[in-house]
Amino acid sequence: MGGCCSHDDAVRRKMEMEVDDGDYEHDHSTHVTYECDEARVILKGSSMCVSMFSQQGKKGVNQDSMTVWEDFTGEQDMIFCGVFDGHGPIGHKVSQYIRDNLPLKLSSAIRIAQQKACRFYDANESESGSCYDDIYDDNNIGMSLASWEGCFLKSFDEMDEHLAQEINIDTYCSGSTAVTVVKQGDQLIIGNLGDSRAVLCTRGDRDQLIPVQLTVDLKPDIPIEASRIISCDGRVFAAEEEPDVYRIWMPDDDCPGLAMSRAFGDFCLKDYGLISVPDVFYRKLTKQDEFVVLATDGIWDVLTNSEVINIVSSAPRRSIAAKMLVKRAVRAWRYKYPGSKVDDCAVICLFLDDQPVLSHSKSNKSGSHRIHRNQSKHQFRRSKSTRNEDTETVDGKVDLELNEEWKALGGLVRSNSISRLPRLAKNMSKRQASKYYKGS
């Protein structure tokens, strides 16, 4: 592989050549922003701390959606980022519906939780006259971790219920993943549903960049996920033509075959183990943490976590980091899987400080598939409510039953999210479909 320095120089020269070809010179014309709920909403483009880009694959309409809400809940130091990967016949409509409505529900839940916390403390005891000064505990968290978790669980639950009742979107056989991040000050709260992913780039003791995977790819072959599915009479197996892709299936039909264990929508499978309960994680940021990458599986299927942070860290300008990452992933698809259709790709790069760090970043190629356990052990916590194992990081052996590294962390290639659409109930009404939500 060669030394780290020569690798970095080669990567940087290659990036500079890509920029020189003019492919990235007109990004600002694609900006889409608007005001909503006291926040500035960004659907395309970049800002002082965010780079965003999405590209349609070769499978049809682009089913990926993404959004960034600056001044989330009306607070200047809070930002929301979300990436959503739709699947099924109208997955693009589902992901867009989630993109537009989930932030509102989460914002409302956070405000209610803040009001409850505010009533719990005596505002008059605060020197500034604001009860929020007293809410912060020893970890400098505005709300308790339990409150943050409750906000994510409540908003995701409401979002799925509203999808079931939405008469203009048929979500019986269509759905969407979601990977979301709320950053407030030096606090990072992550809510994940499905197999999109969030990865943090942090700097190690020797100034090398280290990827820290913040989420788990929630797939049906994970032991605890498979156990739940089987207990609900669902089935988990890989089809002969896709021996490495495990899916959740209905009890009596080899359809629709969903390659994830949690998702919004897909109400044909909600009675059989598919759930819309997110995994919730927490991390206290440090000055060594540089940026977070949220992306759909079109990125992670062909690039490792280390490759992703190397590409982003080598971009000469923050505004084009996401676009360069997508372009590199598309090239990897064509090179690694020339007989497969390139998947849709959507990326949000959230930079964690105000200083331009990208043009001078260094990266370490060795040990690229491992997460730095010692650095993240005490800073990265995940909610225990949706999982039984007592594990603080998503590094290595997450489930105690596994004797080998969890392949959910490997960025392994995956085919289409949904396979062989059902032959039954094709025209089932939304009113009928909603019973799958309420009965699960």
UniProtKB/TrEMBL annotation:
Q: Which InterPro entries does the entry link to? A: PP2C, PPM-type-like_dom_sf, PPM-type_phosphatase-like_dom
Mind telling me which CDD domains this protein's record contains? Answer: PP2Cc
Tell me which domain of life the UniProt entry assigns to the organism this sequence originates from.
Eukaryota
GO MF terms held by the record: protein serine/threonine phosphatase activity
> Where does the record place the PPM-type phosphatase domain?
49-352
Spans annotated as Disordered: 360-393
Write down the SMART domains for this protein, in alphabetical order.
PP2Cc
Amino acid composition bias (Basic residues), ranges on this chain: 367-385
Q: Which Gene3D superfamilies match?
A: PPM-type phosphatase domain
Which PROSITE patterns does the UniProt entry name for this protein? PPM_2 (PS51746)
What is the name of the protein in this document? PPM-type phosphatase domain-containing protein
Upper lineage is: Eukaryota, Viridiplantae, Streptophyta, Embryophyta, Tracheophyta
